[in-house]
Amino acid sequence: MSDRDDRADGADGTDGADRVDGDDRAGETIEFDKLVRDRIPDLVRESGDRPETHVADDSEYRRRLREKLVEEATEFRESGDAEELADVLTVVGTLCRVEGIDREEVERLGREKTQERGGFEERIVLERVRK
Fold first, then answer.
1. Cβ(5)–Cβ(52) under 8 Å?
2. I need a surface site. Which of 6, 107, 126, 131 has the fewest CB within 10 A?
3. For the region Disordered, what residue ranges are annotated (predicted)?
């Protein structure tokens, strides 16, 4: 068996793909090359498509998690949808676990930074600083 098996390049509406419900483009290949949620390969198969996947090693996994964080944050920026923000939090939680970072510590650091520098409640936009 090659380093790619029959598990999934990723495809479902919530992860930015468009083929879980199937369509009439038989023989077409859609490239994704991104980290996807664990059940996506099964959902792709259930739709009648054939996913190709591989399991990332530690280095690739960390890199792809960071890419996924940017992807999900971008999707939230564009949609403003609570589901996309939930995806951001899911990736943050996974990154904390993988990197050995205590999520409560991250939240504490965020509170400290807010105390020291403020939050974003006052809607201040810094346009420029003149010297």
1. yes
2. 131
3. 1-27
Three-class SS state of 5? strand
Rounded Cα distance between 33 and 54, Å, is 10
pLDDT digits (tens, 9 = 90+) for 24-79: 566 899 999 999 999 999 999 999 999 999 999 999 999 999 999 999 999 999 99
Distance of alpha carbon 80 from alpha carbon 74, whole angstroms = 10
- 51: burial class by Cβ within 10 Å (0-12, 13-18, 19+)? buried
Residues 6+ apart with CB under 8 A from 47: 11, 19, 20, 21, 22
pTM of the model: 0.77
- Radius of gyration from C-alpha coordinates of the chain: 19
Longest dimension (CA), the chain: 63
* Residues paired with 92 in a beta bridge: none
